[in-house]
Amino acid sequence: MSRDPNVDATGEFTRDSSLGYQANHLARLLEAALHQRISPLGVVPGQFAQILALYEEDGLSQRQLCDLVRIEQPTMAKTLQRMERDALISREPDPGDRRLARVRLTPHARALRGDLIDAATEVNAAATKGLTDREIREFMRTLSRIIDNLETAGEQPRRKPDRRVTQPHVLPDAQASTELRSSK
Question: 157-160 — which CB contacts under 8 Å span 24+ positions?
Fold first, then answer.
């Protein structure tokens, strides 16, 4: 019989033994560290996933961005309004369907790519300090399995295939950061 992973050795359910609490705490810490590094560039963590998605494929529709970064349409609409206000994106009518707008990065946002990737790489390196490459890969595999478990259980919408240029969190060294910046 396997032990409940959410219960500590004394049989108590605590924050330290709760997967949800620990994952949420980690996400808040990662967001705060990223915010500290990218806010001087005029970008906030709530915009970061959209910018990365547009680095991967510029000219996506708002619906495509929602699917890729897995946020709801109203949240995306507000985020894109702020990004447009901050000169990070522009919206252009789709030539094939005038009802759709294509979201495009501005030259300013494209110029930030190296600095933004460096910031994310620094945060990930700080978070994984003292871990081996093998431990990081195993953690990422485990994390993906947990996400898949919840998505397939109907807890969240099924995620779309990942279309990342490169994964900054899997690139712990400076050479990898350079490779990512030069990949586009």
Answer: 157/70, 159/70, 160/67, 160/68
Q: Reduced to 3 states, what is the DSSP secondary structure of residue 61?
A: strand
- pLDDT, residue 107, reads 98
pLDDT at 98: 86
What's the rounded Cα separation, in Å, for the pair 126 and 34? 11
Quote the tokens at residue 6: 């959410």
Domains of the chain in start order, with CATH, are 42-107 (1.10.10.10)
Q: How far apart are CA 112 and CA 10, in angstroms?
A: 50
- pLDDT reported for residue 181: 42
Residue 114: burial class (beta carbons within 10 Å; 0-12, 13-18, 19+): middle
**Integer Cα distance of 45 and 49 in angstroms:** 8
Alpha helix positions (H), the chain: 19-38, 45-56, 62-69, 73-85, 107-111, 113-127, 133-152, 174-181
Query: pTM for the complete prediction?
Result: 0.75
- Please return the burial class of 84, using the count of CB atoms within 10 Å of its CB with bins 0-12, 13-18 and 19+: middle
Q: Are 151 and 157 in contact (CB under 8 A)?
A: yes
> What is the mean pLDDT, run by run of 10 residues, along the chain of 184 residues?
62 81 96 97 96 96 94 95 97 91 97 97 97 97 94 63 42 40 42
